[in-house]
Amino acid sequence: MQIKETKSSLSKLLVALVAVFALATVALVGCSSGSSSDSSSASSAAASSAASSATATSAIDADAYDKLIASGPVADDADIQANKWASAVKEAGKMRVGGVSTSALFALENEVDGKIRGFDAGLYQLLTRYILGDEGKYELTKVTSDTRESVLQNDQVDIVVATYTITDDRKKLISFAGPYYTSKYAILVTEGNSEIKGLDDLAGKTVAVQSGSTGPKVMEEYAPDAKLEEFTTDEEARTALEDGRVDAYVYDSSMHFGSIVKNPGKYKVVGGTFGPDDPYGMGLALDSDGVEFINDFLKKIEKDGTWEELWKISIGDRTDTTEVPEAPAIG
What we know:
42% of the residues lie in helices and 24% in strands. By secondary structure, it is of the alpha/beta class. The protein has 2 domains: 217 residues, 3-Layer(aba) Sandwich (D-Maltodextrin-Binding Protein, domain 2), CATH 3.40.190.10; 93 residues, Periplasmic binding protein-like II (D-Maltodextrin-Binding Protein, domain 2, 3-Layer(aba) Sandwich), CATH 3.40.190. The chain has a 9-stranded mixed beta sheet, sandwiched between helices. A 3-stranded antiparallel beta sheet has the order 3-4-5. Helix 2 runs parallel beside helix 11. The longest helix is centred in the N-terminal third of the chain and has 21 residues.
């Protein structure tokens, strides 16, 4: 595995490094065809559980995770040769992935062994194994919500897997495989905040959202009187929340679950989840035939139970959520 950084300012890099160190420190001290509505209900259950059980630091079971990934399926050579996208990955000998390494539940780098584990990470590692026969033969380029399309358009990566919501606007620029997961939005505040209890309390408040995400559009509909301040990364937004520069942070509920799990007693989710279902997809270059290949792969790991087991290890066991969401319909 190799990890690369996309171009960003030095300040952004320093903020990200500080956030990684903080997450790792907390983890060491603590030892970090279904319907969309069904998946969202299960995601909401995870949110409630994580928020009400903030005392439970939940580092991923690395042994169980590694064993699951190493036992993933491997594609037939004929299936790979029949697909232009997969053949190119096979010929290159590595899969170039756009992703993150600071998402507690979806893709978090372990400072001890340097490995990235989580639900998103598990899926692209399984896909790497499916094509190349070795889950470690990928190169990670760090992306933000602002750079996910550009790294695909500029052929810097083969695929982006980064809690990437499928939208009509984005489908004009890139193609999506999936969806492979569904989430909604939620309000994150500091643990000691007793003033904000839900959407109605955001009127006149300064609220952090991520630039390049669907957050600003969702807020226009659900809290039009809030004052929005855009940030490039989750770490920057949470830092602003901690510093008191913003009153609340509205973003993907799944990301907030991870922040609560990794930082017990620091944050809480208020008001439940809201907004449209956010289906996560794997981003590919526009009109790539990789969509069909990856959708077949996703159907395979859903059918054989790998998807469910990965969800349990990466999310369910770590948020005390026993109800496994039904995987969304692919395609």
